[in-house]
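FW: tagging you since you asked about this chain on Friday. Here's the raw sequence from the shared folder, copied in full. Didn't touch anything.
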Amino acid sequence: MDNNLQGKVLVIDDDSALCELLEEDLERRGHQVWTALNVADARELLLEHDIDIVLTDLNMPGVSGVDFCAELHDNRPDLPVVIMTAFGSLETAIAALRAGAYDFVTKPVDLDLLNITLGRGLQHRHLQEKVRLLKNQVRRQLSDDEMLGESPVFQTIKQQIMRIAGFDTSVLICGESGTGKELVARALHQQSQRSEGPFVAINCAALPESLLESELFGYVRGAFTDARENRKGLFVEASGGTLLLDEIAEMPLALQPKLLRVLEDHKVRPLGGSSEIDCDVRVLAATHRNLEETVAAGRFREDLFYRLNVIQLDIPPLRERGNDILLLALQFIEELSQRFHKSMVGLAQPAAACLLAYRWPGNVRELRNVIERALALTQHDQLTLEDLPEQLKQKKGEAAAPIGLETILTLDEMESRYIHQVLAKLDGNRTLAARLLGVDRKTLYRKLKE
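HL: got it, structure written out here
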């Protein structure tokens, strides 16, 4: 392990001569150094500079080094803190480590030993950063698995999510009902710096005005008849994380000014309360309505619309996502067949063509319901056209795209035409074709070679 790493060091000690000595020695060893004579100045420097490690005295007037260490551990757990103390007792060491210190050194300070200790602390922070990056990669992979889709329009949405997730600002997610707006909101949360915090969602259309107000903002005991104890609202519960306001267009007009105030001030006042509570939360909003038309009709505040619509994501309907319909159908078959304890090998071609031809007014939610119904009723190991509901089969004349044999063909010729027709429908995607045909990839490749 390299204990000679250089970094940005903040030194805190009320002894100015010691600060100058440490600054000179550490800069000579390649570190960038800032010094503070008290905790108040140290807080300002931490806001102004991207500090890598803190070296603080234990005994200072006002806030002690141990108390400041505990404060940093709560607010900046990624920042290692080394305590300096003239009292090298076991009790002192235990107090420092319990407060979250990475290590401690005794006075008078051995400069060589101090440099080694700082190097270990910097190495520790770099390892933590690598772990965080790996966790982010895992979250991205999980998000990609959930955000299933290969169509160009959906790939664009996924790229937009990756670009804007790190910006801690409001996002308005628009799209028809059932397109997966909450899934997009969860992906934004997972890719953000708030991913370790809570994700909280509420449907603004599902609750009456009085209940929605108490759910969002909380209340104090005695605020109304049934308020027997204090209750945090969702803004406070979601602090440090993300709050999704689903169906935001249905929020009662009377509550909108209070919501706007919270978004602007990051403070919430519970019902019946006399003081405000800080809430550090990122707000996402979703709607299936045209919110600009709702504003024009006077049912939604224009200033609130602009506050929510800093960035807008438009989620495409399922009918515009092409072969994503089949990808999602196969995913639902695999997922639901395990729940129903059925062994399923895919989707028959006429059924697949029918799914592609249907316009899916209920989008992904409707597709999932169709597959669940079909799996519950089918008597085959592959979903067929007869397993689908009537409203889909009404399209089968134009959807099934029959092979159109003009003459009698051999079974091998029929199989060959069928395989090539499926491949053409799937733009040559052999992996998806194999899943759709209910065979493994090796079998498909062998048949193509033949």
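FW: The first strand starts at residue 8 and ends at 12.
HL: agreed, and Residues 8-130 form a domain with the Rossmann fold fold (CATH 3.40.50.2300).
FW: great, closing this out.
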